[in-house]
Specification:
This is tRNA_anti-like. This protein is of the alpha/beta class and 130 residues long. The protein has two domains: 30 residues, no CATH class; 95 residues, Nucleic acid-binding proteins (OB fold (Dihydrolipoamide Acetyltransferase, E2P), Beta Barrel), CATH 2.40.50. Helix content is 35%, strand content 35%. It has three helices and six strands. The protein has a five-stranded mixed β-barrel with strand order 2-3-4-6-5. A hairpin with a 3-residue loop joins strand 3 and strand 4. Helix 2 packs across helix 3. The longest helix is centred in the first third of the chain and has 27 residues.
């Protein structure tokens, strides 16, 4: 009887440890999204995206947050790895930009990470130029 209890407790502990290891490696080391290869969920102008966020940030988050979107607009500022469209959409790139696009209309694809109320900008991450 005592030996049977020890066997059951050992089996349950092994099962719990196995589940923990599976969870740790399955969730923690999950492969990151490749935004560049994803089809966009939305194609929108920079002005429209900013208007949506400016009107109702919570509603816009429910629509755009963590979604792959394509934004078209005029480049109003650029640095090595950042482009700002229409003074309102902050686009962060993984790598330094090689081409200057200042004052040109362009389309950027990236993941929306939300609205920055302090700077009044919509933040887009993992951007690529279309």
């Amino acid at each position: 009887m005592k030996r049977k209890k020890i066997t059951i407790v050992t089996a349950v502990l092994l099962l719990m440890v196995s589940a923990g290891i599976y969870f740790y490696y399955g969730i923690v080391f999950k492969e990151a999204r490749n935004i560049a290869s994803e089809a966009p969920d939305f194609s929108i102008t920079a002005k429209k995206l900013f208007e949506d966020y400016n009107a109702d940030p919570k509603k816009s988050d429910s629509v755009y947050l963590n979604k792959t979107i394509e934004i078209t607009g005029k480049v109003t500022k650029e640095t090595d790895s950042v482009i700002i469209l229409e003074n309102t959409i902050f686009c962060l790139f993984k790598e330094k930009l090689k081409v200057k696009m200042m004052n040109n209309k362009t389309t950027i694809k990236g993941k929306c990470i939300g609205y920055d109320e302090l700077f009044m900008e919509v933040k887009i991450d993992q951007c690529t130029v279309k």
